[in-house]
Amino acid sequence: MDPLTLLFRLPFLPIRAVVGLAEIVRDQAERELHDPATARRQLEEAEDARASGEISDQDLAQIEREATGRLLKGDREVIRHG
Question: 43 with 64: CB under 8 angstroms?
């Protein structure tokens, strides 16, 4: 690499590293969000909370809809990008 080019790129290397790290974090968060095990855990916790009276039936239904929606959205993403 040309020393002049390196001189101009050097100040941007930390920015590129931060952007790369942010992409890794985003990808991991997406995997966890659409992971069936995560949804199952969330549903089990919601059912336990409903059984102990911490949340209402309506709250449980909302949590179930959100978890199912994330799983279905994840499946569509896999089909589209897979």
Answer: yes
pLDDT tens, residue by residue, 31-71: 888 889 999 999 999 999 999 999 999 999 999 999 988 88
Task: Tell me, yes or no, whether 71 lies in a domain.
Answer: yes
Q: Please give the residue range of the domain that contains residue 71.
A: 34-82
HSE value, Cβ hemisphere, 13 Å, CA-based, for 49: 16
Here the tokens at position 34 are 């659409």
What is the pLDDT, as a whole number, of residue 1? Answer: 67
